[in-house]
Amino acid sequence: MITKKNYQLHEKDTGSTAVQIILLKAQIQKLVEHEKRNHKINFNEKRKKERWKDVPAKRALLKKLAKEKRFFQYLKKNNPDAYEKLKKELK
Predict the structure, then answer these.
(1) Is residue 52 pLDDT above 80, yes or no?
(2) What span, in angstroms and rounded, lies between the C-alpha atoms of 2 and 8?
(3) What domains can you pick out in the chain, each with its CATH number?
(4) pTM, two decimal places
């Protein structure tokens, strides 16, 4: 598990890009687990399709994923070393 302490600039740092990515990753993981517990299967005549039961949670997940993507783009542009290190640890 990756911790934010490795990327903090100082003890109370929660605003740097790498730390924000790590915090977002934890929130995304919680939403994914929530979806796994709360999905429903809609059986139509023509096709089977899984759907989200909790639509606001799906929207929140999509927003967080987009935000994470923007943070990664920013980090890659401004601090490529931290970007590469963070990408390796998150995979």
Answers:
(1) no
(2) 12
(3) 4-90 (1.10.287.10)
(4) 0.79
